[in-house]
């Protein structure tokens, strides 16, 4: 695996006296990231076409289109045949598509048109293939009927299950670098704003400040809707920030991440404002121990269910098994939730180069919630954390 591409001393960065200089420093890190091997990805999918029972694949999921070509537009279709890629998009993305594919080093035919022109282009380039694969997880019933009746008449339409998504699991050096940079930005943003927690901001105010700080430090935006949940609101695992003020005596759950060049980070930290009650202190201790057990279980070759079980065993022994109400983690990349899943029902086995989260939690109605989450790079001998902020902290 590649060495870290960002400063691990994010707190030195965050505490820089000049925020403009701090932001510029992060931007230099982002601009110096290793390139991704976009051009080499199509072959990984094309060589799996026959095993998937198809001669060509119509890629309709825009995240998959981006991963295969570097194209970031909001509309487009990609036909992957055994030896060629054909990108079809509309006139809004004429220059953009050509520039992005050239920068990515992707050799693909680009066809610009709308509506029937796109259909005609795909028809012409799929002619002669008797089995056309569709992405079953992203094609609607209405779209499938349209493809069957007027796009691929006479061809067999084959549902493919996560053909591209499974190929995205193992990240290349450039992808790892981008996720690591996104994690460093989120770390630094929290460090710069920690002092605000005791100033009794409203949840929505602090969430917005985190989002803005990540942008100042070089992110294109948050990787999902930032969660700030204070007091009993923290008992709702996906609470939406509202006008509740943070108060002394609250557990505050902060779940957030940044996006760098399309790639996401994900982190949850729980902060104790003031002195903890005995129950709050035990919640923090149990979840921290559970998370440590889960992180220790992350090793290439280990079934993902074993990571989930390691976290769950600690919380079960504490008597709070029913209060851990979600899966232990998920993959992270161009999407905030992607393969592999880390849960009781996951069939995945961890592989070197995969990036996953470990995020156990305990949620008690009368006391609030505690969740601790890291984003981790799976290595042959264990894992390397990409999120570095302190995990259990008190602020007063």
Structural description of this entry:
The protein has 396 residues and is α+β, with helices and mostly antiparallel strands. 35% of the residues lie in helices and 22% in strands. It has twelve helices and 20 strands. The chain has helices at 10-14, 19-31, 41-46, 62-69, 94-104, 116-126, 141-151, 163-167, 173-193, 203-216, 278-297, 304-317, and strands at residues 56-59, 77-81, 84-89, 109-112, 131-135, 156-160, 221-222, 227-230, 251-256, 258-260, 263-264, 267-273, 329-331, 338-342, 355-358, 361-364, 368-371, 374-379, 382-385, 392-395. The strands form six sheets. The chain has a six-stranded mixed beta sheet with strand order 4-3-2-1-5-6, sandwiched between helices. Strands 8-9-12-20 form a four-stranded mixed beta sheet, with helices on both faces. A hairpin with a 2-residue loop joins strand 10 and strand 11 (263-264). Helix 9 packs across helix 10 and helix 11 (278-297) packs antiparallel against helix 12. The longest helix is centred in the middle third of the chain and has 21 residues, at 173-193. It is elongated. Mean pLDDT is 92; it is low at 1-17.
Topology, element by element:
Layout: H1 10-14, H2 19-31, H3 41-46, E1 56-59, H4 62-69, E2 77-81, E3 84-89, H5 94-104, E4 109-112, H6 116-126, E5 131-135, H7 141-151, E6 156-160, H8 163-167, H9 173-193, H10 203-216, E7 221-222, E8 227-230, E9 251-256, E10 258-260, E11 263-264, E12 267-273, H11 278-297, H12 304-317, E13 329-331, E14 338-342, E15 355-358, E16 361-364, E17 368-371, E18 374-379, E19 382-385, E20 392-395
Parallel strand pairs: 1-5, 3-4, 5-6, 12-20
Antiparallel strand pairs: 1-2, 2-3, 7-10, 8-9, 9-12, 10-11, 13-14, 15-18, 16-17, 18-19
Helix pairs in contact: 9-10, 11-12
